[in-house]
Structures are given as C-alpha cells and as structure tokens.
Amino acid sequence: MVPRIIVAGNGQLGQMLQQAAAPMQVRVMPVNPAGEEPLELNDSDVITVELEYWPDTPRGLQLKDHPNFLNATTLHSVIDRQRQKSLLDRLGVPTSPWVSLGAAEGMAEQLESLGQPAIVKRRRGGYDGRGQWRWQPGETPLPEWADECIAEAMIPFSHEVSLVGARNRAGEKVYYPLTRNWHQNGILRASVGNLPVPAEQQRLAEQWLGRIMDDQNYVGVMAMECFVENGHLLVNELAPRVHNSGHWTQAGADISQFELHLRAVADLPLITPEVYGVTMMYNLLGRDWQPRWLSVPGAHVHWYAKEIRPGRKVGHVNVHRPDVSALMASLKALREQVAEADQCVFDWALAQV
Ligand code: ATP
Ligand code: MG
Question: Dihedral, CA atoms, 91, 93, 98, 101, nearest 10 degrees?
C-alpha cells in the first residue's frame, strides 16, 4: 500500500505534488501547517514539506511530532542560514566566504573582514531575495543586522546553476542535469534545463549534494543552488524540497521533480529520470497569461490561481522543444507576446541556448 502523503504547505508546490500523484492515484493532501485545528492523521501517513518554517500552532506541532515527519534535522539546519553555512563547511562543500554578524559595535569590522562588497542576509525567513541587503566597504551597517544576520562575500559569478536530486530511505540517489538559472533582484526569472554542462561540474555537484543528503539521512527531493565563478562551483544555498528551478522537469523529463519526490518519500522505485530535448521555464511574476501563448509550439502554462500582486510568483510557463533550434524559434515567438518588461527574460534564455 502506498501511504497517504501529507504536505505541510498548500501553495503551488503542494498543488503540483498533488497533480503528479493523480495518475498513480497516490493520495497527496496539502495542508496549511499554520492552521489551528488538528488534522485526522494516521500513523501510516508520511509527512513532507513544501515550506521550511511554520508557527507552533496545535496543527503545526501535530505535524512535526508525527512519527513519519520526514527530514526534521535537515529542516532545523536549513531554516537558519548560519546553521546551513556551518553544515556546508563541516561537509567540505565549497560556499562563499561568510561571517555571522554579532553585536552592533563590531559589525563594520566583521563585514570588512570579508575584504569585498558583501551581501547581508537575515538568518531566518528570507525568500525570493527578501531580507537581503548589499553592503559596500565604508558604509555604516544597519543596526537591524546585529545578531540576526550573516554576511557573505559578493561573488562575481558568470552564471548560476542548480542541482535537483533525490534520495530514498535505502540511500539510493538520482539527479537531473544542472539547470541554468537567472535571478534578478534575488528572484528567479527563468531557468533552462538540459543544456550541455561540463562533466566535472556535474560530477562535483552530485558528489556534494549526495554527501549532504547522506549526512542528513535525507528522504525526498533536495535542490542545491550554485554560483559558477571562473568555471568553478560554489554552493549558494540548499532547499530541502521541490524547487522552482526544477519546474522545467514537468516538460523536459519522463519523471518530473514532483513525481521523483513522491517516489522517494513513498518508497516507490527511484530511477534516474530520462531527460530529453531542451526546456525553458519562465516565471510569471505578478502577471496574467494569455490563451494565445498556447499557440506557441511546446508552451505549457501552469497557473497557481493566486491573487496577482506585483512581483509575486503566480504561475510559470514551460517551453519544451526537441532541440535548440526549435526552442529558439518558440522563445522568439513567445517573446513577442509577453509584457515588454519580460522580454529581457527571453533575451537571456536565447543567449544561453
Ligand atoms: P530563494 O528564493 O532561492 O530562496 P533567497 O531569497 O533565499 O532565494 P538567495 O538564494 O540567498 O536568496 O539569493 C538570491 C539571489 O541573490 C541569488 O540567486 C543570487 O543571484 C544573488 N546572491 C545571493 N547571494 C549572493 C552572493 N554571495 N554573491 C552574489 N550574488 C548573490
Ligand atoms: Mg536562492
């Protein structure tokens, strides 16, 4: 019997896990973990997450205390950037130089010790670039950074990539090829999946993510975001869940990251996904979509049915084609149909393929 899977979090990731489960009739129940009312859970249920943090409401505690609540240790490490950076250091996984900011008096010296412009990040609760500040040598640090933040050296990367992989209880691990990502103001605008990547980069990234997942006895999909600087990878951060940079696998792989996660957490066979063609994922940030986009070959819309607010992730479009020249044609066609301010996303993608 495949267990029922309870997802803490009922945003788009929970929704897409549910969609991936539907053909197999696997029961996936996304819930709001911040709700007050306890749920009717069975001991055979498996609890997984689509977000890393929620308050200790009666339901929130019920989920965390369930015997099959997965990856508690990893969540504990990852929700706090200081603990996450320490984990990477302990496992010998290269990451940008960092310091933990202490009392207000010493902050300027701590920042100077990084020897270059820095990016200050709140230890907890940041996402999509929120809770981050750029700092230049000579500037006075903000008092609110004291004791709450870490600072990292600003990395002059050439581009960003991420690795999405999965591990099951038996310790088997599988990975997708590195995805190329473009962030603007800290938020993911687009990804391209299945571009050629140097074999050594892929090998190292798999080795590091594998080491992290093994160390944590992790079960499910994990994403590892990296900077590429002079051809070398540096890990930026970890996401202990399905991840926006893996959405292209819905169109470009025979097993999407959502199905892969379900296979891992429900002890279904975990095999390396077959990846084909080339796929661009375009995030809809505070924008509606137009039915005529569907006339572009290979375009698939995923709409999250959320209220449209400026900059908010409300959907994504996967454009999947069998080869680069066909993808370029589709990207050029879609570029002409999106809001002018989003055309740069297609210019970026066209320059990558
Ligand atoms: P996510 O939405 O992925 O959870 P986040 O808000 O947690 O994002 P980060 O991934 O830490 O934030 O940073 C967002 C983006 O800001 C990065 O993808 C990168 O483009 C830029 N950035 C972050 N840290 C650095 C750094 N040390 N050097 C250069 N750029 C950085
Ligand atoms: Mg990030």
Answer: -30
What is this structure's pTM? 0.97
pLDDT at 177 > cutoff 80: yes
Given pLDDT bands bounded at 50, 70 and 90, which one contains residue 103?
A: confident
Q: Are strands 232-239 and 98-100 parallel, antiparallel or unpaired?
A: unpaired
Structure tokens at 148: 């709450």
Give 26 Cα–ligand 2 centroid separation in angstroms. 30
The count of other CB atoms within 10 Å of the CB of residue 98 is 20
Q: Give per-residue burial for 238-276: e unless 16+ CB within 10 Å, then b.
A: bbbbbbbbbbbbbbbbebbbbbbbbbbbbeeebeebebe
All domains of the chain, ordered by start, with CATH?
5-69 (3.40.50.20), 97-153 (3.30.1490.20), 159-352 (3.30.470.20)
Do 47 and 9 form a contact (C-beta atoms < 8 A)?
A: no
Gap between the Cα atoms of 82 and 151, Å rounded: 10
Nearest CA to ligand 1 atom 15: 186
Atom nearest to 155 CA in ligand 1: 28
Residue at token pair 């696997």 = 26
Name the closest ligand to CA 52. Answer: 1
